[in-house]
Design a protein that fits this description.
heterodimer; A: 479 residues; mainly alpha; MetI-like fold; B: 250 residues; alpha/beta; four-stranded antiparallel β-sheet; 10 strands
């Protein structure tokens, strides 16, 4: 096992009394206690239970808790056609137990049906508590564990506690659905109370102490996951603070994201299969198989993906048609088969999967070929000399080793596929890009639409790159 | 010779093998019979076809013409070559252990896949063999963590786990540091004493003297001299053998 040498003298032995009094441990411990206790004090004592939104020509929309807490802003954003927002009236009511943090969490827990709608609220309210519990576990391990400071958990503790203050502030924003208008309408009652401020101090102390522990470890703390997180949260905040037009765009393109993901994941499964077969074909001793595989790779790599997609979508039905007619002309006995071919129509989704698979399978074949050839031929000979068949040797000996070589470029292929999947929008597949185009055609909000679409792709690709890195790190072995 | 055809476990008849579309002749009409339990050492200059001969015996290399009969089976005619290969253990110069598997799994895998043994049975056999080759404590290590000598001993254990009738050794000590050669040769000596049929390509003359029943000198794809070790070292018949021995015995 590769171990990271620790840069700390607090690691590897039971800590002495003096070492236990290190200020960072004390700060983590006291900060955590403060957060847990502050959740008993009044935090958000009032909530908006009803909001009536009126538009200039008389349209009135009434929203109640909890719809309000996640949709009021959206209601305002969606002007009825040719109407202007006139005014909003809100009713505010006190919350049980003076709206302490725990009572909010309990209330959410008692109404499980709220949780999917208020998931972001639950998460930001729960996060400081998770941070406090994590910090307590961490400090407990350092104080009472035989190995002293649990150095490998430092990065996790920093992430957990570092996000606490941000989470608390976002929890407050949730009280008025991120709408400064609602806040202005009920300013006094929506101000956070003592519990909020104490918890904020607690989370800040924990975050500061955890960050100060950074020099005790040589593990990388600031890695690229933070970028994924920052872009993701920025997109979310953009949607919450500027619901018009971003929430509307999000609502419109949301199903496009699902289509894109379904398309990419389905295609990727087939691509791996085609790549494996193509790769094996390219190292085959049989000239016929080698020839077919090579021809496939060479031809497909030379044609742009967009042209392939257009061919499959527009030209392939004609090919099916002619083939069916040919069959019928050849023999009346083939009438049924011929008619089947004539009637054959691919759905847009199938055509898209087919196009992406054929194109990326060719690139994948080359990756698999290179990966398999990179394994020393002695491995195959040793496996065969033990009596394994070619396929047993491939499965147990060659492929498990080749995976290590293949994985990084295949991961890159996945990210590239995610981006190139936007090309299928020409085939009437309602993917993310096509939904963006449709929204723009309706509203002419070109800048807002495409920045939102770009952000969605960016979050997806950044996340996949990190996931690939993670899997790569997991598949390494001693050599 | 007094032995009948059937008592030979390996029979090679007029074997020919060329590489690069016939431009390089590796084996040029080799005939060789090995009785059961005999330890044969093959020596010869590099490129003389020693390794190719060995690899033809388990059909890792397919000869252009000639026949190989192992344990009564004609290799060019058998339906399933893998069944024959399982009866022929092979040890390589470069060890060729599987780096992604632990030492134990290196020995267990083929037993499970080829011999269809249960995991428990295969592990028992593997641990016994590791004891036999003197490194029972390395069962959970990975090949990359072992010395060359230890790796080669694992490779021998891996081959023995299939309970082969014949063991082929292709320069098993050539890639080893000098201080590790003995630990591998000791294991091979032990095997020879137990009566295993062995064909060894090696220039370890000490091993040839102590363990071999027969020594073959090959040059340019032909068997030049086929005799006992005593005879070969004391009074080689052929001029070519004398030249070669004078070069390697210094």
């Amino acid at each position: 096992m590769a171990t990271i040498e620790s840069g700390s003298d607090l690691v590897g032995h039971r800590l002495s009394a003096a070492e236990r009094r290190d200020w960072r441990f004390l700060a983590l411990f006291l900060g955590a206690l403060l957060v847990l206790l502050a959740y008993f004090a009044p935090m958000f004592p009032y909530r908006i239970i009803q909001a009536t939104t009126r538009f200039s020509k008389g349209t009135t929309i009434v929203a109640h808790f909890p719809v309000l807490i996640y949709r009021q802003h959206f209601i305002q954003a969606r002007h009825p056609l040719k109407e202007e927002l006139r005014d909003v009236q809100v009713r505010v009511a006190p919350v049980g137990h003076a709206g302490s943090g725990w009572s909010w969490l309990l209330a959410l827990w008692e109404y499980p049906s709220y949780i999917p709608r208020l998931f972001s609220y639950l998460l930001v309210l729960l996060w400081p508590v998770l941070g406090a519990l994590g910090a307590l576990l961490f400090v407990g391990q350092a104080w009472f564990g035989a190995k002293g400071l649990p150095e490998r958990w430092i990065p996790l503790t920093i992430y957990l506690t570092g996000l606490g203050p941000l989470a608390l502030v976002l929890a407050w924003f949730h009280q008025f659905d991120f709408s400064t208008r609602l806040l202005a309408l009920a300013q006094g009652s929506l101000q956070p109370r003592v519990g909020f401020w104490l918890a904020l101090v607690g989370t800040l102390v924990m975050a500061f102490a955890a960050l100060a522990l950074r020099r005790e470890t040589r593990r990388a703390v600031g890695n690229w996951w933070i970028l994924v997180f920052v872009i993701g949260v920025s997109t979310w905040l953009l949607v919450r603070f500027k619901p018009y037009p971003f929430l509307e765009i999000w609502d419109f393109i949301y199903d496009g994201i699902l289509v894109t993901l379904r398309l990419v994941i389905t295609s990727f499964g087939f691509i791996l299969l085609v790549s494996l077969l193509g790769g094996l074909g390219r190292i085959s001793r049989s000239r016929l198989i080698y020839g077919i595989a090579s021809l496939y790779v060479e031809i497909i790599r030379g044609i742009p993906l967009l042209v392939q997609l257009l061919f499959i979508w527009f030209a392939l039905p004609q090919v099916f048609d002619s083939f069916g007619k040919l069959l019928i002309a050849l023999s009346p006995a083939l009438e049924k088969v011929g008619q089947w071919w004539i009637d054959l129509r691919l759905s847009p989704f199938t055509a898209a999967v087919l196009g992406l698979t054929i194109c990326y399978g060719a690139y994948g074949s080359e990756i698999f070929r290179a990966g398999i050839s990179s394994i020393h031929h002695g491995q195959m000979e040793a496996a065969r000399s033990l009596g394994m068949t070619y396929f047993q040797a491939m499965r147990h000996i060659i492929l498990p080793q080749a995976i290590r070589v293949i994985l990084p470029p295949v991961g890159n292929e996945f990210v590239a596929l995610l981006k190139d999947s936007s090309l299928v929008s020409v085939l009437a597949v309602s993917d993310l890009t096509r939904r963006g185009r449709e929204y723009m055609a309706r509203t002419f909000l070109s800048f807002d639409t495409w920045i939102m679409v770009a952000l969605c792709y960016l979050v997806l690709t950044l996340f996949s790159s990190r996931a690939v890195e993670f899997i790569e790190a997991k598949t390494k072995f001693e050599h | 010779m007094g032995a009948t055809e059937d008592s030979y476990i390996i029979q090679v008849k007029d074997l020919r093998k060329t590489f690069h579309h016939g431009r390089v002749v590796a084996l040029d009409g080799i005939s060789l019979n090995v009785p059961k339990g005999q330890v044969t050492v093959i020596i010869g200059p590099s490129g003389s076809g020693k390794s190719t001969l060995l690899r033809c015996i388990n059909y890792l290399e397919e000869p252009d013409s000639g026949t190989v009969i192992v344990d009564g089976m004609v290799l060019s005619e058998v339906e399933n070559i893998n069944e024959v290969r399982a009866e022929i253990g092979m040890v390589f110069q470069q060890f060729n252990l599987f780096p992604h598997l632990s030492v134990l799994d290196n020995i267990v895998l083929a037993q499970r896949v080829v011999r269809k043994r249960s995991r428990q049975e295969a592990v028992e056999i593997a641990l016994d063999l590791l004891k036999k080759v003197g490194i029972p404590e390395k069962a959970d290590a990975y090949p990359g963590q072992l010395s060359g000598g230890q790796q080669q001993r694992v490779a021998i254990a891996r081959a023995l786990a299939m309970q082969p009738k014949i063991m082929l050794f292709d320069e098993p000590t050539s890639a080893l540091d000098p201080e590790m050669i003995k630990e591998v040769l000791d294991v091979m000596l032990e095997l020879a004493r137990e009566g295993m049929t062995m064909v060894v390509v090696s220039h370890e003359m000490g091993f040839a003297r102590n363990a071999a029943d027969r020594i073959i000198f090959m040059d340019a794809g032909k068997i030049v001299e086929d005799t006992t070790p005593e005879q070969l070292f004391e009074a080689p018949k052929e001029q070519r053998t004398r030249e070669f021995l004078s070069k390697i015995l210094h």
